[in-house]
Design brief:
- By secondary structure, the protein is mainly beta.
- The chain has 3 helices and 14 strands.
- It is globular, with a radius of gyration of 16 Å.
- The N and C termini lie far apart (39 Å).
- The model has no long low-confidence stretch (mean pLDDT 93).
Length: 184
């Protein structure tokens, strides 16, 4: 099922979808305002989410314990994909990021086994620790022209990654980016 929804008040996505929609949506297009609570709803409640388009959203700051980090009060900055957003998710295949995005927090998509291609918007300046580590289906990454920092292990064990562009804006790149460890 394909669903388009506008979220005017960040943190309310869970209340704007029916239980049936949460069980049947595969493709979701969201406009408006999101925060870590909405991302948590997408991750934990929309159980078959495969394609996510949040390009027409703005990610708002949120502070509290109802976000993507379980049972811990966290300050989530604006314009950042929250830490642990979709980690260990095996249904998400594609995501279109907001154009206003400036960073992707640590472990955001860690071990998302279905992601195959990434297009990081031009406004993104930082990919934080392990954000796409162990995403074993990623084959291609297009980094935006403003990336200045790629922290450690962002692409660790992305065993099928064949193509990545490194823009001239890149000032620092952490260790163990492209390490692949054989299975035991």
């Amino acid at each position: 099922m394909i669903k388009t929804i506008e979220v005017t008040t960040a943190g309310t996505l869970t209340y704007e979808l029916t239980n049936i929609e949460k069980r049947t949506i595969t493709n979701l297009i969201v406009t408006g305002n999101l925060d870590a609570r909405d991302i948590k709803c997408m991750r934990d409640e929309i159980i078959h989410l495969a394609v996510l388009d949040i390009s027409a959203t703005t990610i708002q700051a949120y502070s509290g314990s109802d976000g993507t980090v379980s049972n811990t009060s966290v300050d989530y900055p604006s314009n950042e994909i929250p830490q642990n957003s979709f980690n260990y998710n095996n249904t998400i295949k594609s995501i279109i990021f907001p154009n206003t995005l400036t960073s992707i927090a640590k472990m955001s998509f860690y071990a998302c086994s279905g992601l195959s291609e990434l297009n990081i918007p031009n406004n993104v300046i930082a990919l934080k620790e392990g954000s796409f580590g162990y995403c074993t289906s990623i084959t291609k990454v297009a980094l935006g022209s403003s990336i200045s920092s790629i922290e450690k292990e962002v692409f660790k064990n992305c065993t099928n990654l064949a193509t990545i562009n490194l823009p001239n804006s890149l000032n620092s790149i952490g260790d163990t980016q492209f390490c692949n460890y054989p299975s035991r």
